[in-house]
Amino acid sequence: MTQASAPHHLPILEVFQFPCLDDNYGYLIRDREAGICASVDTPSAAAVEAALAETGWKLDFIFNTHHHEDHTGGNLELKARTGCRIVGPRADAARIPGIDQQVGEGDVVTLGRHRARVLDTPGHTRGHIVYVFDEDQAVFVGDTLFSMGCGRLFEGTPEQMWISLQKLRRLPDPMRVFCAHEYTQKNAHFAIGLEPDNADLRERVAEVDQLRELDMPTVPSTIGRERLTNPFLRPDSPELQATLGLRGASLIEVFAETRRRRNEF
Ligand code: ZN
Ligand code: FE
């Protein structure tokens, strides 16, 4: 076997994805050479522990995206058992159990040799953040972006969420999107009603239906695919605007109406 030896060779960021609770995904990520591992959020301590047992990985960090119980519920128990260090949003530090390191837009978090840029993405909650591993082409988006969907606006305005989503929309096409819930099929059926002539979307709906019938995950997606099929990233689509009766409206208006309709779908 040949070993890559280029000076800038970056080892693969290992990602172990596991379903838990009703429809959450948990993620363990690891720098194999350094043997350093993080759990992105902690939907449940038991589920994260089971994933650690299955992989044989040792937990060093928790990278939280936002304060909701299905993202931080396992924080304290896992910290007590492993001594891991908890990284989370500065803007919401008071609601992140056990937080050790507060981060926000522009900060860089490291996992061994892997680096993640932090982006503030308020909207779902006021202190939501995402972790962008540029070199690894992976972004962990929590409940800001879903496959063909986006988070509900519990603590933010459409304007805030649209600004947050634009930060994600600007990421490169191949970047893998790891979201925290398997909401894809319902999102897909909502999306196709808004853009029935979107060929990329039709293809994806068929694919998603097939995957779900086999009980397989539809996550991760990629930024490129989301840009082509996610109505919340497409307020500039003429077909979407026409369906909503908002031809030529501002992108924020179109986004807000799309979000409002999804709440009632
Ligand atoms: Zn949430
Ligand atoms: Fe959630």
Detailed description of the structure:
- This protein has nine helices and 14 strands.
- By secondary structure, it is α/β, with parallel strands linked by helices.
- The strands form three sheets. The chain has a six-stranded mixed sheet with strand order 1-2-3-4-5-6, covered by helices on one side. Strands 7-8-9-10-13-14 form a six-stranded mixed sheet.
- A hairpin with a 4-residue loop joins strand 9 and strand 10.
- Fe (iii) ion binds next to helix 2.
Give keywords.
six-stranded mixed beta sheet, binds fe (iii) ion, alpha/beta, Metallo-beta-lactamase, Chain A, disordered N terminus
What's a concise summary of this model?
By secondary structure, the protein is of the alpha/beta class. Strands 1-2-3-4-5-6 form a six-stranded mixed β-sheet, covered by helices on one side.
Give the topology.
Blueprint: E1 13-20, E2 24-31, E3 36-40, H1 45-55, E4 59-63, H2 69-72, H3 75-82, E5 85-89, E6 101-103, E7 108-111, E8 114-120, E9 129-133, E10 138-142, E11 145-146, E12 149-150, H4 158-169, E13 176-179, H5 184-194, H6 199-213, E14 221-222, H7 223-229, H8 238-244, H9 251-264
Helix pairs in contact: 5-6
Bound molecules: zinc ion and fe (iii) ion.
